[in-house]
Amino acid sequence: MRTAGRASLSDVAALAGVSVKTVSNVVNHYEHVSSAMRERVQRALDELDYRPNMSARHLRGGRSGLIALAVPELDAPYFAELCRHVVRAAERRGWTVLIDQTDGMPERERLVIAGIRAHLIDGVIFSPLASGAPELAVRSDSTPMVLLGERVSGGPIDHVGIDNVAAARAAVDHLLSLGRVRVAAIGKQQRRTAVTARLRARGYMSALRGRGLASDAALVMQVESYHRSDGATAMAALLALPKPPDAVFCFNDLLALGALRTLLQAGVRVPDDVALIGFDDIEESRYSTPTLSTVRPDKASIAETAVALLAARLDEGADTPPRGVTEPFELVPRETTGQRADQ
User: Fold this and answer.
1) Does 149 map to a domain?
2) Is residue 39 in some structural domain?
3) How many CA atoms does the CB half-sphere of 211 hold within 13 Å?
4) Is residue 14 scored above 50 in pLDDT?
5) How many domains does the chain have?
6) For the whole prediction, is pTM greater than 0.85?
């Protein structure tokens, strides 16, 4: 009969009147078990509220069942949503995720690169902000790692990202297709490691060139970070120009939401006077007034692929060449560019 505490395979086998091996086959989803037997064992599993001992299972395989996810900011909606998807993808593999916030600080990212709790975790999914190829090139920790975000050129690490140049170009092409001719950009950054900013700026410039439009340096606003306040301040500077823009591409949704606030406070009609588009499709963009047009990276697919790459690296070891996967994106027009609110 059942012992005190957690139910064991033996408890389930005794209740179902079958062998422990049969219960194990059902728990591990082996195919060669009859439907009637599977239902019989499942009733016993449900009655005893059986839960597999994942710690023991992982330890028998020489693994802890723990992975780490290191991101710059947990209160940034994009990373919060991405974390949720990673946790769900990991749970499907029986993994637990430890989440580390680096704040994009070089010293904290160096700790991740050097080996974040290497004796406890099986692998790391890392979204760097302050680290680039030089920092990753000297990595000595052998814990499997998957990078999120921009590919570090020549880095010996698996990577998942999107085509930021193409995505930014699609966003600006959308604004230009509305007949706008003075399209501003908010999100330029000068830091060596600001790869995302450079790629999205490249896409912005490519779209302008594709329509035969000259770029105007006064319309490209530099920001310190990608927060709402930065977008609000940059938009105020654009409105103060002798000839303000008639459209704005923001390098993420938080910048766009800050810009939208400034526009509305100034009495500027959106999208009539100024069309606005962001990047990331965070949940907040679907509930702003007006709703925010944006670029939607497939966050669920990014997370699932990152976890799958980590699992493959654990199985294959370090000898397999690093893999890079580019996930899709989608343009999502909403009210800030004159589209319906229900998209």
Assistant:
1) yes
2) yes
3) 22
4) yes
5) 3
6) no
CB-count burial class (<10 Å; 0-12, 13-18, 19+) for 112: buried
Same domain? For 73 and 127 the reply is: yes
Least confident of 114-128, 189-203, 255-269: 114-128
Each residue's pLDDT tens digit, 270-321: 999 999 999 999 999 999 999 999 999 999 999 999 999 999 998 887 778 8
Question: What are 334's two structure tokens?
Answer: 């909403």
Percent of all residues in the chain with a pLDDT value above 70, rounded to a whole number: 91
Q: In angstroms, what CA-CA distances link 257 with 186, 249, 263?
A: 12, 11, 10
Beta bridge partners of 248: 184, 276
Same domain, 179 and 274: yes
Rounded mean pLDDT, 88-102: 94
Strands (E), 38-122: 66-71, 96-101
DSSP-assigned letters across all residues of 237-259:
HHHTSSS--SEEEESSHHHHHHH
> Which domain covers residue 192, as residue numbers?
164-296+331-337
**Are 303 and 86 within 8 A, CB to CB?**
yes
Look at residues 62, 86, 82 and name the one whose alpha carbon lies nearest to residue 74.
82
- The dihedral built from the CA positions of residue 321, 329, 261 and 178, taken in this order, carries a sign that is positive
User: Does residue 167 contact residue 149 with C-beta atoms inside 8 Å?
Assistant: no
- Whether the predicted pLDDT of 5 surpasses 70: no
Residue 188's H or E segment, with its range, is strand 183-188
Specify whether the CB–CB gap between 124 and 145 falls below 8 A. Answer: yes
At position 3, the amino acid (one-letter code) is: T
Measured CA to CA, the distance from residue 175 to residue 211 in angstroms comes to: 11
